[in-house]
Prior knowledge:
Blueprint: E1 15-18, E2 21-24, H1 25-48, E3 54-56, E4 62-65, H2 67-84, H3 87-93, H4 95-99, H5 103-110, H6 120-127, E5 132-138, E6 141-159, E7 164-181, E8 184-190
Antiparallel strand pairs: 1-2, 3-4, 5-6, 6-7, 7-8
Helix pairs in contact: 3-6, 5-6
Amino acid sequence: MKARHKTSSLNNRGKSKLGKYNVSESKAVRIKSVRRLAAKQFVNIIEHINDGLVVLDKDWHYVYVNQKAAVILLAGVVLTGCAISTVQSRKQQRYGAYEALTPEMRGLVDQGQIKVGMPMDAVYIAWGPFGRVLQGENEAGKTITWVYYGSYVQEVRYWGYRNLHYDYYPATYVRAQAVFVNGVLKSWQNFGAPPY
């Protein structure tokens, strides 16, 4: 396989073909130099603006996200998740189930905490909506597992033209799970966020 060089080819009159124009070799070198300088300046401007910038391709995939936009996107993800469902709103949704809890369980639920022995409604009020339901069976009977997901913005670093570039992509992870047997919480686990 022949190696390609980024030099312009000469036509039979000693002129270089650059794009659709025929220019002399020295002009071609100058034009390429100006283009490289303009590209560097453009990247430098984009990396140092104070506003959030997100660049998407034609298929709506992230091409570039600067640090300010990553912070804004992460805040949006966090605030949207918090604004949709709170302990107070879930207590109102399942008021009867909340009132039927013991005072100790009500105190835990009010703090967003759970404890083995709680009914499913108490766990729902404390932790909120789950992302997935798994069904199974063990020696005690049929089990139902609620899987809770979290989200974060994952940073990806790579070398581009003479610079280290940063991209940020939204990602999900399994945050916690609660296992019920006969409608009563038998075990639970918090997994925590992945390292950044």
